[in-house]
Amino acid sequence: MKISIGITIGIVVIVALAVILAGNYSSDEINQNKIRVAFFPNIGHAVPIVGLENGIFENGIGQQIQIETKLFDSGPQVIESMFAGSIDIAYVGPGPVINGFLKSDGNDIKILAGAASGGASFIVKSDSELDSIENFDGKRIASPQISNSQDVSLRHYLASNGLKPIEKGGTVFVLNISNPDIYTLFAKGDIDGAWVSEPWATMLVQELDGVRLFNEEKLWPNEQFASVLLIARTNYIENNPEIIHNWIKSHEEAVLWINSNPDKSKSMFSDFLLGYMGKSLPPEIIDESFSNLTITDDPIKNSVFTFAERADSLGYLGRSGYNLDGIFYNVDLKADLELTQLNG
Predict the structure, then answer these.
(1) Which end of the chain is more exposed for a tag (fewer CB within 10 A), N or C?
(2) Is the model's pLDDT at 28 over the cut of 70?
(3) DSSP 65
(4) How many Å apart are CA 103 and CA 296, to the nearest integer?
(5) Among 10-14, 213-217, 304-308, 313-317, whose mean pLDDT is lowest?
(6) Which residues share a beta bridge with 123?
(7) Which CDD domains match (predicted)?
(8) What letter would DSSP give residue 172?
(9) Three-class SS state of 194
(10) Taking Cα atoms as reference points, which of 130, 134, 276 lies closest to residue 142?
C-alpha cells in the first residue's frame, strides 16, 4: 500500500466538519470497515510509514478494512482530531497524549504501544555560545507547538538549570513555531537554537551548519524515553477489537521488519517523502536521522510518567493535580482479542 498524498489537503476543514458531524452520528457506526490513522512525516514515525509502504498493515488487518491515512505536523492537532472523531488511531508524542487523556478525564484515549525512543536533539547556531548555560540570557530558542513533547523537554531543561522563559519573568525567549518555520528562522539567524525531532534536527546540522549540543536521550535514565506512542480512541478499541488486535500485531511486525531491514526502511522512507513532498532528503540526512533514534514497541512507561511530572511542573496539566491510572491499555494478543484496562 502506497500512502496517498491527497490526505494532507484540508486537514483543518476535515476537523471542523468532524466536530459538526460528531453531534449527529457516531463515527464508529459510520466507519465500521475503516481505520483512520494519523502520523507525522518524520523519521520517528517510521513504523506507520514503512509499515504502510511495504504492505504490512494492509495485509495484517485484511483487504476488507480500508486504511485512511492523515498527516499532521503537531501532536495537539492530532488529539483534537481524535476528540472530533475524525481519527481512530494515531502515532504521537507523550506530551499531547497525556494532555488528551487528562482532558477527557481518562475516557477517550489509551496508549497501545510504543513506536520510537529518542530522536530529538538540541541544535544551536555555531556562534550562539549556548554551550554554556551562563550564556542563555536573551537567547531565542524554538520548539514546535506549546505543550508538545519537545516543548515540555525544552522548558524542563531550562527550569532544571535555573532559567525561565520571558513570559514567566525569565530571560530566555521560547518560540513555539512549526518545524518548517524553525528551519527558516534558523537559516536566517533569527533564532539561536531549537529543540526538534528528526529529521529536522539533522537537517539543521547538515544543511545549516548547526551544532548538535546534545541528543535528548542523554538526559534520560538508560538513555531511553518514549518519543512516539501508538494510541487509540477508547470507543474505537471497544467497538472494533479485531481491527485493533490486527493493527497491533502488524505494528509489532513493522517494528521487527524495520530493525531487521534498516537500508530498505530508509529507502521506503525516502520514497514516502518523494510522494508526499515531491522531493526526498539526501541519503546522508536520512542515515544520520535514523541513527539518532530507536524503533521499538516498548512504550517505556516510566518515561511517560516522567513527562507528566514535567508537564505538570510547567502548569500544563491544570491546578487540581492529575491521575494517569488507565492511560495504558493491556493488550493481550493471545486471549481472543481481549483488551483489558490496566489500572495503574
Answers:
(1) C
(2) no
(3) S
(4) 27
(5) 10-14
(6) 194, 212
(7) PBP2_NrtA_CpmA_like
(8) B
(9) strand
(10) 130
First and final CA of the chain: distance in angstroms? 38
Per the structure, the count of domains in the chain is 2
**Which one-letter amino acid corresponds to residue 8?**
T
Cell matching residue 142: 524554538
Question: Are residues 207 and 297 both part of a single domain?
Answer: no
- The CA-based angle 204-210-211, given to 5 degrees, is 125
Strands 211-215 and 173-176: unpaired
Instruction: Give residue 147's domain range.
Output: 121-222
Task: Name the DSSP class of 223.
Answer: G
Nearest 10 degrees: CA dihedral of 86, 91, 95, 97?
50
- Written as nine digits, the cell of 290 is 535514523
The distance from CA 223 to its chain's CA centroid, rounded to whole angstroms, is 18
The partner residues of 92 in beta bridges, in order of sequence, read 229
Question: What DSSP element (H or E) covers 79?
Answer: helix 75-83
Indicate whether 143 and 108 sit together in one domain. no
For range 250-258, the mean pLDDT: 99
pLDDT at 134 over 90: yes
Nearest to 211 by CA among 219, 201, 226: 201
Distance CA 55, CA 50 (A): 8
| Axis-axis angle for helices 241-260, 46-53 (nearest 10) | 90
Kindly tell me if the per-residue pLDDT of 10 is higher than 70.
no
176 and 99 in a single domain? The answer is: no
Q: Which of 173, 204, 222 is the last residue of a domain?
A: 222
The x, y and z cell numbers of residue 155, run together, are: 522548558
Query: Contact 86/12 with Cβ under 8 angstroms?
Result: no
Rounded to two decimals, the pTM is 0.87
Q: Contact 215/121 with Cβ under 8 angstroms?
A: yes
Check whether the bond before 299 is cis (ω within 30° of 0): no
Work out the number of other CB atoms within 10 angstroms of the CB of residue 58: 16
- What does DSSP say about strands 66-71 and 34-39: parallel, antiparallel, or unpaired? parallel
